[in-house]
Amino acid sequence: MTAKSRKPHILIIYTGGTIGMIENPDTHSLEPFDFTHLIDNVPKIKMLDYDIDNIQFDPPIDSSDMSHVHWVEIARHIEENFDRFDGFVVLHGTDTMAYTASALSFMLENLHKPVIITGSQLPIGEVRTDGEENLITALQIAAATNANGDPMVQEVAILFEDYLWRGNRSTKMSADKFNAFKSNNYPSLAKIGLGIHFDEDALWRVQAKRPLNVQYGIDTAVMFIDLNPGITESTLRHQLATPGIKGIVLKTFGAGNAPTAQWFTNAIREAVEKGIVILNVTQCVNGGVDARRYMTGNLLADTGVISGHDITCEAAITKMMYLFGLGLAPKDVEQYLSRSICGEVTI
Ligand code: ASP
Known about the structure:
Rossmann fold; 2 domains; binds aspartic acid
């Protein structure tokens, strides 16, 4: 049997999330449940005729409990099994799915196989579940090849309902719609209808195929500061003085604008001079930072804050965790924040 004619070999990594949850009869809350229950609810999987193996988190978790420790665990499973499988499907809760997708996109350097993350809004055991379709489509995408027999998807992506999105461009947009995810500043990688229609121009391709290299060092000494009209000097200074903090994603207004009061720019400048890396990311879901467009943004840029352009908040914070995790000096972190590493930002 030639390599191309053998069955696709896919590894499912089940971390938890609504897709595998069942209702606790006492509290009536949804709680993570085990993989056997999940897979028993999708008998159609056998029709795919794939070789499917699985690994499950013990215990499976609600993704609100997801942390860098779990990202390391997922990445380790992928690295340990990388050569044996054609693709990977990660089942994950939707709440922090975009953070995990972004983090893995940085950690899995030189990735050239599909890592498809999916989950669902309704548990797999419910009659109207979206979980069955999402799981089956994710498996098909993980197995898809192009005309050369290479994996169609060679990056971390989120499959949800009608679309495949680049992982580090995605955001959870809805707490109840089946189309829960969107990449507001980048086209979909595939549209799901009667068929799966890939946009080959949008898909990520590594320049030169090198062996997978996983970066496990994730530094969590980073935080968001979210601006609001009326923010006070004491609130801002209190946050900037958080002990041990190395990087801040500053969520600003519109095209990257912030208050022009002297106390504000002074506080930000002092933090930058102390060596804290500050990345300016807009609170808007669409568009990005255009630091020189308004005087308000210009003043902020002059303090030494870096423009995040059109990066998502999820990609911004995880990119900082990854860069500081590499042990880079603040100046080098700033350099990498100003360029795209794996398609996360348009410069
Ligand atoms: N709370 C759930 C989770 O993120 C929500 C979901 O999976 O849709 O694990």
